[in-house]
Design goal:
This protein has 368 residues and is of the alpha+beta class. Helix content is 38%, strand content 18%. The protein contains 12 helices and 9 strands. The protein has a 7-stranded mixed β-sheet, sandwiched between helices. A two-stranded antiparallel ribbon has the order 2-3. Helix 8 (190-198) packs across helix 10. The longest helix is centred in the first third of the chain and has 24 residues, at 68-91. The structure holds zinc ion. Zinc ion binds next to loops.
C-alpha cells in the first residue's frame, strides 16, 4: 500500500505529460494480466489508500496555482483510463489462473446413474409379469396385528402352524386382546385380508414386500427378507386357473422351456394347497448339483383360498358396518407366494443370501 509517490519537480506541460505517461503505462501493464479485479480497483481508486488519491494529494499540495487546472485534467484522463479498464475486466469472463488451470487432457468426471438393487430388480420383474395379467399392486404395513397376520388367515390361537414361524412380536402387548397384539408380519398374506375387507370381488392383486422372522442368519436364511404374494378372487376361479397362471408366470420369469409341477402341501389359509416346482434351469431337468440331482427346484407355495378366510373377512366387513361379499358358495379364489431372495439367488447364481444386504459395491456392480 505504501507505494512511493513519484516525485514531481516541475509543473510545466512537458513534465506533467511525462509523469502521467508513466502512470498510464503502469495502469496498462497491470490491466494486461489482470486476475484480481477488485484488488486492482482498490489499489488505484481506493478512497483512503488508492494511488490516485495519494498522488493527487501530494502533487496538488505543492502545485503552483496555474498548474492546478492542467494537473486536474490529466488526473481525470487517468481516472477514465482506469475505469475503462475495470469495466472491460468485469465484462470479460473470469480468467483461469495459470498454476491451478484446467487440464483439458484429463478424462471427465463421470457420475454413475445408479441401478436397481438386485432384489428390487427381481421383485419388479415378478410384479411386472402379473401386471401384464391384469393384477394391480397392493401394499400393507410391516407392523401388523395378530388378527391380520394369523387369525384371519385361519391360524387360530395356539394353532400348531404358528410354531413353524418364529415371530418377532412387539414388547408391551400383553394387556391387549390376542388379536390386537402387534408383531412384525411374517408374510405378505395380511395384505390379502386388508384388501378383501376393503373391496368386494373381483380381486387380482400382487403384493411385494418385506417380511420378518426370528430366524438365525445362514447361507439361505435371513431374519428380514422379501416376498411377492398374489391373490385372485372372483366367480368360478378354479385350481386350473391357478395352475395356468403360475405356469405362465414361471415361463415368463425363467424362460419358455421351463416346466412346472404341483405337489400337495399344507398352508392354513389355502385348501387344497400345493408346492410348485420348476424344472431345473441349470440342467434342463437332467439333474445337477444345484437341483440336488432331482431335476426340479422348489419355488413357491399356493392354493385355493380356504373358506374360513372368506368367513373371517366377511365377519370383519360386517363388524365395521359393511356388507358381506365373500360367500364361499359364490366366490372362489387362489393365492400364491414366493421368496424374492430365493428367486434372485437362482436367477443370478448367488450362493450367500447375506451378499444382498452387505452393501458391497463389488457384488452390487455386477448387476449394473
Ligand atoms: Zn439341475
Amino acid at each position: 500500500m505504501n507505494e512511493e509517490i513519484p516525485n514531481l519537480p516541475n509543473y510545466d506541460d512537458s513534465s506533467l505529460d511525462a509523469a502521467f505517461a508513466t502512470l498510464a503505462e503502469e495502469v496498462r501493464g497491470e490491466t494486461a494480466s489482470l486476475v484480481d479485479v477488485e484488488a486492482f480497483r482498490l489499489r488505484w481508486l481506493g478512497r483512503k489508500q488508492g494511488r490516485l488519491k495519494l498522488i493527487g494529494e501530494a502533487w496538488l499540495k505543492s502545485a503552483p496555482p496555474e498548474a492546478r487546472k492542467p494537473l486536474g485534467m490529466r488526473f481525470n484522463q487517468l481516472k477514465q483510463q482506469i475505469e475503462a479498464a475495470l469495466a472491460e475486466a468485469e465484462a470479460a469472463p473470469p480468467k483461469r489462473t495459470g498454476k491451478a488451470g484446467i487440464d483439458v487432457t484429463l478424462p471427465g468426471s463421470v457420475r454413475a446413474p445408479g441401478i436397481e438393487h438386485p432384489l428390487l430388480k427381481t421383485m419388479n420383474e415378478i410384479v411386472r409379469v402379473f401386471h401384464h395379467l391384469g393384477y394391480s399392486t397392493a401394499l400393507g404395513p410391516q407392523v401388523e396385528s395378530d388378527f391380520y397376520n394369523f387369525e384371519a388367515l385361519n391360524f387360530p390361537p395356539n394353532h400348531p402352524a404358528r410354531d413353524t414361524q418364529d415371530t418377532l412380536v412387539l414388547a408391551g402387548q400383553q394387556a391387549k386382546p390376542s388379536r390386537d397384539r402387534l408383531l412384525m408380519r411374517t408374510h405378505t398374506s395380511p395384505v390379502q385380508i386388508r384388501t378383501m375387507i376393503a373391496e368386494a370381488p373381483p380381486i387380482r392383486i400382487v403384493v411385494p414386500g418385506k417380511v420378518h422372522r426370528n430366524d438365525a442368519a445362514d447361507a439361505t436364511h435371513s431374519p428380514v427378507f422379501h416376498q411377492v404374494e398374489g391373490l385372485c378372487v372372483d366367480h368360478n376361479i378354479t385350481f386350473s386357473d391357478l395352475k395356468g397362471t403360475l405356469d405362465h408366470a414361471m415361463k415368463a420369469l425363467f424362460g419358455s422351456d421351463v416346466k412346472t409341477r404341483f405337489f400337495p402341501s399344507f398352508f392354513p389359509f389355502t385348501e387344497p394347497s400345493a408346492d410348485v416346482q420348476i424344472s431345473c434351469i441349470f440342467c434342463a431337468g437332467k439333474g445337477c448339483r444345484k437341483c440336488k440331482h432331482s431335476g426340479w427346484i422348489e419355488l413357491l407355495g399356493c392354493g385355493m383360498v380356504d373358506p374360513a378366510v372368506f368367513a373371517s373377512v366377511d365377519e370383519r366387513r360386517v363388524a365395521i358396518g359393511g356388507q358381506p361379499a365373500y360367500d364361499p358358495a359364490k366366490v372362489t379364489g387362489f393365492a400364491f407366494g414366493m421368496g424374492v431372495e430365493r428367486i434372485a439367488m437362482i436367477l443370478h447364481g448367488v450362493s450367500e443370501i447375506g451378499q444382498f444386504y452387505s452393501g458391497d459395491m463389488r457384488f452390487l456392480e455386477q448387476f449394473a
